[in-house]
Amino acid sequence: MVEIVRTNDVVLVGFLQSLLENANIPVLVADSHMGALEVMNILFPRRILVPDDHANQARRLIRDAGLGAELRDA
Question: With 90 as the cut, is the pLDDT of residue 5 above it?
């Protein structure tokens, strides 16, 4: 698995998860339980992870959605 996005924005996480799942890209949202407390959102951002063999396609979809600035370095 490779991390493609790390953010505290729960709306963005939901959007990206939906975007990737609709493209049949397996996605794991890591650290979602750590951010359950509002105070912890700042300390523990959520991470979007995809399998290595889907990373390029996932990055392309995110860029095409106009969210390329959210991507972690490859």
Answer: yes
